[in-house]
Amino acid sequence: MIYVLVHGAWHGGWCWERVRFELESEGHVVYTPSLTGLSGSAVPLSPDVGIETHVNDIQELLENEKLTDVILVGHSYAGAIVTVLADRARQRLKRIVYLDALIPKSGHCLLDLFDADYCELIRSRVNEFGDGWKMPVAKKEAFGLEKEEDILWVMPKLVPHPFKTYQDIILFNTAHTASMLKSYIKCIGNNPPDGKRTPYAEGINDYYELATGHDAMITAPQELVQLLKIISACK
């Protein structure tokens, strides 16, 4: 099986290290690219980095490596990227997986998924701490990090995220994305599983819950790998 794992805001390809090790040890092929301007990327962050930049990052990887039958996983912010690619690169994909991820609507931006108060908070932090174009790194609680070893590994690696990616209008063919097989994994923290679909999970083929924090690839890599293997076997 071929997996392309796309990280969320502030992160880099490094965050999949534990998941990648588990999958590769079982003979799977795994790609964990770092998006332009983010940790591990060879290209510096700039105000010009937008959603199209990051979509192109992954589309070029798929095409340059001539990948087919790919399980494309998008964590958090990267839900927007995999959604667009379900349209533009559908012939190379077997299934997309949303890992506690945002699912955008065509013709809208990611900020449209949040209420007005939260958007205003983001804008004020960007203006105060991010020179008007960078989203400052969130606190460890936002990622569900509890173990000291995880906090010490993750937090120093996180970098500001380009705010343009949340403001850009996202466009894709909804008929194409609707025809793509889609799975959703909801990270529910310490809450008991209830199997109910969240608003982000509407329109998917299968839904799962993980009793861990938002950064499941850090906090529950083995459990996440087991879910990915189950999802990959689905028709």
Structural summary, described in words:
The protein contains nine helices and eight strands. With 235 residues, it is an alpha/beta fold. The protein has a single domain (2-232), classed as Rossmann fold, CATH 3.40.50.1820. Strand 3 (70-75), helix 3 (79-88) and strand 4 (93-99) form a beta-alpha-beta unit. Helix 1 crosses helix 9 (221-232) and helix 2 crosses helix 3. It is globular. The mean pLDDT is 94.
Give a quick precis of the structure.
With 235 residues, this protein is α/β, with parallel strands linked by helices. Helices cover 34% and strands 15% of the residues.
Key terms:
single chain, 235 residues, alpha/beta, Rossmann fold, six-stranded parallel beta sheet, two-stranded antiparallel ribbon, 9 helices, globular
CATH architecture: 3-Layer(aba) Sandwich
Instruction: Report how far apart the termini are.
Output: 14 Å
Determine the CATH topology: Rossmann fold
- Just give the CATH class: Alpha Beta
Topology:
Blueprint: E1 2-6, H1 17-25, E2 29-31, H2 51-64, E3 70-75, H3 79-88, E4 93-99, H4 116-129, E5 134-135, H5 148-154, E6 161-162, H6 164-167, H7 174-179, E7 182-187, E8 206-210, H8 216-219, H9 221-232
Parallel strand pairs: 1-2, 1-3, 3-4, 4-7, 7-8
Antiparallel strand pairs: 5-6
Helix pairs in contact: 1-9, 2-3
